[in-house]
Specification:
Length: 265
């Protein structure tokens, strides 16, 4: 029996979605080299003890709420563009053990020295947060959206309200589809617990987390919806930069025009 034959069909369909979105990320130049990572909570598709035979155990200190989570997760150092054709090399499924002291890799990770993403601690923290606060949110996407990163170098980044207003005013879609806006997370080292804490704090009030001078992260019901938050937010940043490049300050939607859009939110 091949490895893939052991995977439930809904999960195989999720793999197809991940491959498709990875193609979008590559085409947008948001996923250079090993940039970005993805995880999806697929616990609902696996019973206790399932798929554990023969898998290695990797000690890793995790919050106790993470016990028994089963996650699809991309690998550290792996290229997201590899998800398009070789998902079993660039990603794996992990099952966190009952006391959250580590995990088993129960599928995938078929590349040399494979390990889950270096941002695992942030991804796990978000899935634990989602399990309590928005149970339908299953996917987490971190990538490097060009124009949002450029704007994180601008002084606007220091004033989150003004930053969000500047993007919302660019066109109705931004106001409607990123209604809670963007959280401006000050620079911190990738993979750190500090970054995980700041990100969770940001998700209590915003749709998108912008990591200063690094990239952005969103969570959604599925990988496409997480991508949509980043895509629409980045469109606002791109339009703002285009206006500035053309040498003018955009007029922007008026406060009344933005208020009128609230019925679509
Ligand atoms: Zn990154």
């Amino acid at each position: 029996m091949k490895d893939i034959d052991r995977i439930p069909e809904p999960v195989i369909n999720l793999f197809k979605d991940v491959s498709r979105i990875a193609g979008y990320l590559w085409n947008k130049e948001w996923a250079e080299r090993n940039a970005g990572n993805i995880s999806i909570d697929i616990s609902e598709y696996f019973g206790p003890g399932e798929l554990q035979a023969g898998s290695g155990f990797f000690p890793f200190s995790l919050p106790e709420e993470a016990a028994n989570l089963t996650l699809f997760v991309t690998g550290t150092g792996c290229y997201l563009r590899s998800l398009i054709d070789n998902i079993e090399e660039a990603a794996c499924i992990i099952r966190i053990n009952p006391d959250a002291s580590g995990y088993h890799i129960i599928w995938g990770g078929h590349s040399e020295n494979f390990k889950p993403t270096s941002e695992l601690i942030t991804h796990v923290a978000i899935h634990c947060f989602n399990k309590i606060h928005r149970t339908s949110y299953k996917a987490v996407l971190h990538t490097h959206p060009l124009e949002l990163i450029v704007l994180s170098h601008h002084s606007l980044f220091r004033d989150e309200e003004k930053f969000n207003h500047s993007l919302w005013k660019m066109c109705p879609e931004i106001r409607v589809f990123v209604p809670k806006g963007i959280f401006c997370a000050p620079y911190s080292l990738t993979g750190s617990e500090e970054l995980a804490d700041v990100t969770i704090n940001g998700l209590t009030k915003r749709d998108v987390i912008l990591w200063e001078k690094h990239g952005a992260l969103a969570t959604g019901e599925n990988i496409e919806k997480a991508f949509d938050y980043l895509d629409v937010a980045n469109k606002g940043a791109k339009m703002l930069l285009m206006a500035w490049s053309a040498g003018f300050e955009p007029t922007g939607l008026t406060l009344q025009e933005m208020k009128d859009l609230e019925k679509f939110i």
